[in-house]
Each structure stands twice: as structure tokens, then as C-alpha cells.
Specification:
Helices cover about 60% and strands about 0% of the residues. The chain is built from 4 helices and no strands.
Length: about 60
Amino acid sequence: MRTPVTSLRSDSSLDQSVARFEQDALNFKRTAIWKMLYDFQKDCVLSAIQKINKYNGCIIADNQ
């Protein structure tokens, strides 16, 4: 069964995760995962963070 996007957004654990991520804004760039990303992927992550902060959400898609 698919979960509606609206119910995902209202999930308090998601809100807490976003808040924690914002608090660790500098630390995530020191992680092994960040270091493995290509430059265009890093740009996407940073853009997604900006959209989450501005619009309270973001959809990321892969064209493969």
C-alpha cells in the first residue's frame, strides 16, 4: 500500500530528522558519504536542503 505524501510530511520523526540535519549543517560535509558524492550530487543535496527549508519539502528524482 502506498503512503500519501501528506502523511509523510506530517510525520514528526521526519520533522525531527530535518531539524537535526539543520543543526549538523557543517558536520554532514565531513562524512564518508558526502566525500563519495560527485560534484553534481553535492549540488543536488545542497539545493534540496534549500528547498526543504523554503518550501518544507523537496522531491528528488533519478532519470535512470
